[in-house]
Amino acid sequence: MINMKIRKLVAMFYSIYLIKSGKIEKTIKKCIEKRLIISVYFHNPSKKLFEDSVKWFLKNGFQFISVQELYDVLKNKEEMPLKKVLFTIDDGWKDNKINIVDVALNYNIPVTIFATVEPINTGNRFWWSITNEAYKNKIIKENINEIKNLDNNKRIEIVEKAKMFIENKVESLNRTELIEISKNKNISIGSHTITHPILTKCNNKITEFEIKMSKIILESWTKVPVISFAYPNGCFNDREIKYLNDNYYKIAFTTKPNYISKESKNHLFEIPRFDVLENVSSYENICRMTGVWFERKINKKLND
Fold first, then answer.
1. Nearest CA-CA partner of 91 in 111, 120, 69, 63
2. DSSP state of 292
3. Pairwise CA distance, residues 186 & 107, whole Å
4. 177, 125 contact by CB (below 8 A)
5. Which residues on neighbouring strands pair with residue 251, listed in sequence order?
């Protein structure tokens, strides 16, 4: 806990330095010159965090682009638009209805929510929430990072063990709420699999099932085509891309921190995104969602 507090404090002062040194202005200028689109994703932000993020981009002259509009630009090889930003949400948390949807409607901006089907359908907790609590209470010995690196069958075994001792609670939207949300012109629904496994740790049968059936189920609920997908934990390889293609997805999102550029036209199933965190300072999140926080990593990739 102390280390987290120190980390948050150090990161806040470092972010203030980046902002005061003009890094943000330089980044915006670079995005204009190179026609880069900023892609941002959230999980379960507060209404203030999400609204502040929306207001920051609007104040700085950005316009919001939808996933469908992004796909049309990339697929049709159109010229990349100027000063555009894309907002997506992973998992489908219950509070998204108020904290995300209400803000999107109020500011008339497009947002895509990548929904995890099983918790929405059953009311079960997200599996990582269960294991985090079980680890904290010493019911299991594996932490979340260790579990993510296990074979999927072993992960399921640990989750099932944890479920025996951890109280269930509703964390996600329910089916009725998702259907209601999907009717809003500002909101589109994408797939985030059935159960949110780490797909690269699953066998072929499970991976194809998660990708195929999540699309079928979401479309049966919303009566709207599901064209987009977000990889759980950002993990994927050529196999996942093949299954997405086979099941008529059009575009997929990673957790790789980078800008969407003209090169993305050739990598529709590898769209990068910058993450916004719920437990850091507003200064850090400004640096994160503009890409400034990841500048060294981005430059290294460009120079490799």
1. 120
2. G
3. 10
4. no
5. 228
CB 75 within 8 A of CB 143: no
Query: In the numeric block, which tokens belong to residue 91?
Result: 């998992």
With CA atoms as reference, report the closest residue to 259 among 50, 52, 62: 62
The values of phi and psi at residue 112, to 5°, are -110, 130
Q: Residue 78: what pLDDT? A: 85
Whose tokens are 């497009």? That residue is 110
Query: The pTM is what?
Result: 0.95
List domains and CATH numbers for the chain: 2-120+176-299 (3.20.20.370), 124-169 (no CATH)
**Rounded Cα distance, 45 and 272, in Å:** 20
Closest by CA position to 230, among listed 252, 205, 263, 261: 252
222: Cβ contacts below 8 Å, ≥ 6 apart: 178, 179, 182, 189
Residue 209, amino acid: F
Give dist(CA 51, CA 3) in Å, integer.
Answer: 29
Residues of the chain with pLDDT under 70: 1-2, 296-304
pLDDT on residue 297: 65
d(CA 262, CA 265): 6
Answer yes or no: are the C-beta atoms of 276 and 42 closer than 8 Å: yes
Given this model, what pLDDT does residue 7 score? 87
**Rounded Cα gap, residues 298 and 291, in angstroms:** 8
> Whose CA is closest to 86, among 33, 12, 31, 23?
31
Q: Which amino acid, one-letter code, is at 68?
A: Q
Give Cα separations from 252 to 159, 183, 272 (angstroms). Answer: 27, 22, 9
Give the H/E segment covering residue 205.
Answer: helix 204-222
- CA-wise closest residue to 265 among 80, 29, 97: 80
